[in-house]
Amino acid sequence: MNVTLRQLRTFTGVYRTRSITRAARELGITQSAASLLIQQLESQLGVKLFDRSTRSVQPTLAAHEAFHAAERMLSDALSLSRRTRDLAHARAGRVAFVASAGAASALLPLVLARFRTTHPDIEIDMRDVAADDLVPRLIATDAEFAIGSVEGEVAEMTIETLTRGRLSAIGRRTTEFASRRSLTWDELAQLPTIAMRRETRIRMQIDQALGAQGKRLSPTYEVTLINTALAMTAQGLGLAILPATMLPADQFPTLIAKPLVRPAITRPVSLLQRQGRTLSPAAQAFVATARAVLTERSG
């Protein structure tokens, strides 16, 4: 049995109006088409639905029993159509993604705030993880994409750079520090510093770049989390060595970033997606918002 929605709409229309002619007019089809649809439905169901005469159309007992079920099926189909349309236009749905802790703290609150104003009914599931866990968590979970810093290529992933952050000395907004345009790594070596631990990706990149010039970083403190470095800097314990993009100004209004030079080192914040996977409309809308916000911020 292959009952169609067109047949059900015709059946419920005839049932309510007690007229094939009026039902056909409401549905925008011919009377003969409506009669044929009822005949097909009766044949497929194996029961007579209407007793027809030249003057009237009367529902049978089978029609009375089938009417409410048909109404429910049409309502479910309409709900499905609306839901699918909302999903297609990013008016509903869910966005699940992974973000490195630094990006989640410094960059994504701006993106989330913008996205919430334009897509208030979309559910957000952001999983903030350590930078080294970014790719493994994207592979192992139902997350559609990831945002964070990676180096080089990653197997079966596409990587798009969203913004770049200059490695900087981040310190308190004192008169002397604020007046500087930049610091060299040699100048930085004479000051108390807070750096990420050697096993972190940021530190590996720094050590490699400095090692190529015969230099070595010997920080006063080493930490694992970016927010820890910033909180320590806010207390005056030293200059944090981080990308300028990782400084959330709203959270640390007393801190400013000055570029580190000789050498200048940049670190990307990228979008990672599995190759061959299409993002849901909701995820596509979120990624578009992230691109726009981060482009504005870098500008």
The SSE order reads: HHHEEHEHHEHEEHEHEHEHEEEH
CATH overall fold name of the largest domain: D-Maltodextrin-Binding Protein, domain 2
Under the CATH scheme, which class of the largest domain? Alpha Beta
**Total number of helical segments?**
12
Tell me the β content. Answer: 15-25%
Number of domains: 2
Query: Which regions are unreliable across 5 or more consecutive residues at pLDDT < 50?
Result: none
The helix fraction, in percent, is 40-55%
Quick one: biggest sheet? 10 strands, mixed
N-to-C terminal Cα separation, in Å?
62 Å
Q: Do you know the CATH architecture of the largest domain?
A: 3-Layer(aba) Sandwich
Outline type: rod-shaped
Structural class: alpha/beta
Computed over alpha carbons, the radius of gyration is: 32 Å
Average pLDDT, all residues: 90
- SS elements, strand count: 12
Family: Belongs to the LysR transcriptional regulatory family.
Protein name: LysR family transcriptional regulator
Keywords: DNA-binding, Transcription, Transcription regulation
Domain HTH lysR-type: 3-60
Structure description:
The protein is an alpha/beta fold and 299 residues long. It folds into 2 domains: 84 residues, Arc Repressor Mutant, subunit A (Orthogonal Bundle), CATH 1.10.10; 205 residues, D-Maltodextrin-Binding Protein, domain 2 (3-Layer(aba) Sandwich). 45% of the residues lie in helices and 23% in strands. The strands form 2 sheets. Strands 3, 4, 5, 6, 7, 8, 9, 10, 11 and 12 form a 10-stranded mixed β-sheet that branches. It has a two-stranded antiparallel sheet with strand order 1-2. A hairpin with a 4-residue loop joins strand 1 and strand 2. Helix 2 packs across helix 3. The longest helix is centred in the first third of the chain and has 28 residues. The radius of gyration is 32 Å and the shape is rod-shaped. The two termini are 62 Å apart. The relative contact order is 0.14. The model has no long low-confidence stretch (mean pLDDT 90).
